[in-house]
Task: inverse folding
């Protein structure tokens, strides 16, 4: 791993492959996903101080090449350091001139010079001079440029800043894969590079494929930056795939052309007859925004553009927290046919299902044809194979659903199913599903075929007096499990956990922890990811798990917070919440 650097990154919440994370760099905290507005000291529109005060901005980006090439700027910033010069004590990322390389074909500085310059001015995050090969470039040339990029990456390995390591390879997924493997091994911040043109041309399905191949080939604990992605219409797709950082020069560049950004596309200010926004700028000026003197108009437009960009990030974070990011995507991606193609491509990404939580805080809503391939459907279909029932009903898009588990998430989102589970069977007039059959089938569904047999005939099942729903399962006088009201998942207590442990062989259902963590777990404290030695890869985030030591002695039960892949790769954050 590259130079030792003050760096922490941990997952707080998740949905699909999106994650809300805590990132710490040089003692400065940042919650991701996050937007880095680009500040150009040659063309100051909104000052860093305003970005912080008005937009709550904790991280921004500047271009070190522009600074290096302007003698006065260079000398001032070399003297004061970049934080003091910008009057900004948050995280400052700098880019290397790669964008200029892409736009103008060549630049006059070497990789080494640019790296050293970023070190000298005190960037928290810096870049090497990666070559952003354009989409559909001649492949031998894409490969040749990628080799130079990887060579330049090696020169940055010991940089004194957190390296924002560009992954290139044009639209060639095999080149992207090769680059991702090499960059992902060495760098903790990996950037999806060379995508500006794809964005500009609305090639969202290519974008989805490129981000996907990168995410599949780097460790999942790497921070991922979508380089040059500043338009909010692509934020939700990229965040759903696991991008954490975005940089926006777009808010300013669009403003200079009198373009008004919205989360579903761009408008020309002079063509607007109604303002679809109520940010402080739009509230203050209304349509008079169009009449402002040119300089002021550009500045106010830039502020509006920045407001909607930050707002979109917040909306997406809220959707991650509520676990309705799929529904949010369905809504956003209907704004443009190319976004919808991007969404369709996203639902084809099988790797996403491994990261997605098995149960969610919000109802499952079908929105359109693409919903049938959602991560939840992939995971549910696998688990349905575990359950045998003669009493099944076809429910699109899941297939045949046993009546006994119709209260379980996500089936409980379908009203028709809920009623069916509650009421008499339609064919045999008086048949009502006994509670014990429900519990047994949920056990099979949740833990594996045969788990239902662990529920003895003589258990007592108690319902909540208030909601009348199944809540507790007793054997003799002992509480062996509870049933969670929100999703009807079974929460096993130790007596049932012991039976599961005996019935299913190692490593099934297990999270194996390091000896050092045993005393903490026995006190009921959470298991941190770094103390997990092994984990059943078939588990999903939010599953109920058996916590065992390395000799497979059962210690406790708990709820898995992360997916197995995340538990293995992350060395920070909570992996299992212990009961
Ligand atoms: N800005 C926009 N795209 C890129 C890229 O691919 N690499 C770098 N370093 N900066 C960029
Ligand atoms: Zn506005």
Result:
């Amino acid at each position: 791993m590259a130079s030792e650097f003050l760096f922490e990154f941990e997952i707080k919440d998740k949905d699909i492959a999106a994650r809300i994370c805590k990132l710490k760099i040089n003692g400065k905290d940042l919650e991701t996903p996050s937007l880095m507005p680009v500040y150009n000291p040659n063309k100051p529109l909104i000052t860093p101080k305003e970005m912080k005060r008005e937009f709550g901005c904790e991280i921004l980006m500047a271009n070190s090449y522009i600074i290096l090439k302007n003698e006065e700027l260079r000398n001032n910033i070399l003297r004061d350091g970049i934080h003091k010069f910008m009057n900004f004590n948050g995280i400052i990322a700098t880019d290397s001139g790669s964008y200029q390389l892409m736009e103008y074909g060549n630049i006059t500085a070497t990789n080494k010079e640019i790296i050293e310059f970023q070190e000298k001015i005190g960037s928290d995050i810096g870049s090497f001079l990666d070559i952003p090969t354009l989409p559909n470039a001649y492949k031998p040339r894409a490969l040749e440029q990628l080799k130079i990029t990887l060579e330049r990456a090696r020169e940055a390995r010991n940089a004194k800043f957190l390296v924002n390591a560009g992954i290139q390879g044009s639209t060639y997924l095999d080149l992207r894969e090769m680059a991702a493997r090499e960059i992902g091994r060495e760098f903790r911040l990996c950037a999806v590079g060379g995508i500006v043109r794809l964005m500009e041309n609305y090639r969202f399905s290519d974008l989805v494929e490129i981000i996907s191949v990168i995410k599949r080939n780097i460790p999942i604990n790497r921070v991922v930056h979508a380089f040059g992605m500043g338009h909010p219409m692509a934020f939700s797709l990229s965040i759903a795939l696991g991008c954490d950082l975005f940089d926006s020069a777009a808010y300013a560049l669009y403003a200079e052309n009198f373009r008004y950004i919205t989360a579903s596309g761009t408008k020309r200010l002079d063509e607007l007859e109604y303002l679809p926004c109520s940010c402080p700028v739009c509230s203050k000026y209304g349509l008079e925004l169009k009449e402002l003197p040119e300089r002021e108009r550009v500045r106010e437009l830039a502020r509006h553009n920045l407001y909607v960009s930050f707002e979109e990030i917040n909306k997406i974070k809220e959707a991650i927290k509520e676990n309705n990011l799929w529904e949010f995507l369905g809504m956003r991606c209907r704004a443009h046919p190319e976004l919808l193609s991007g969404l369709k491509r996203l639902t084809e990404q099988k790797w996403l299902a491994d990261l997605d939580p098995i149960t969610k805080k919000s109802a499952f809503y079908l929105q359109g044809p693409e919903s049938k391939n959602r991560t939840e459907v992939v995971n549910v279909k696998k688990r349905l194979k575990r359950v045998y029932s003669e009493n099944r009903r076809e429910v699109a898009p899941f297939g045949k659903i046993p009546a006994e588990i119709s209260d379980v998430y996500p089936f409980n989102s379908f009203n028709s199913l809920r009623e069916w589970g509650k009421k008499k069977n339609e064919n045999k007039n008086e048949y009502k599903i006994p509670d014990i059959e429900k519990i047994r089938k949920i056990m099979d569904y949740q833990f594996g075929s045969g788990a239902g047999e662990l529920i003895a005939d003589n258990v007592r099942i108690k319902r909540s007096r208030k909601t009348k729903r199944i809540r507790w399962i007793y054997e003799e006088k002992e509480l062996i499990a509870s049933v969670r009201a929100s999703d009807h998942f079974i929460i096993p207590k130790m007596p049932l956990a012991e039976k599961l442990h005996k019935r299913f062989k190692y490593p099934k259902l297990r999270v194996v922890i390091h000896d050092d963590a045993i005393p903490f777990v026995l006190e009921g404290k959470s298991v941190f990811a770094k103390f997990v030695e092994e984990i059943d890869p078939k588990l999903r985030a939010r599953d109920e798990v058996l916590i065992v030591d390395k000799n497979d002695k059962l210690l406790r039960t708990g709820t898995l917070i992360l997916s197995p892949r995340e538990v293995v790769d992350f060395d920070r954050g909570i992996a299992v919440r212990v009961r």
Remarks:
- Residues 222 and 374 are 24 Å apart (CA to CA).
- The pocket of guanine (ligand 1) is lined by residues 95-96, 98-99, 127, 130, 132, 166, 193-194, 196, 227-228 (CB under 6 Å).
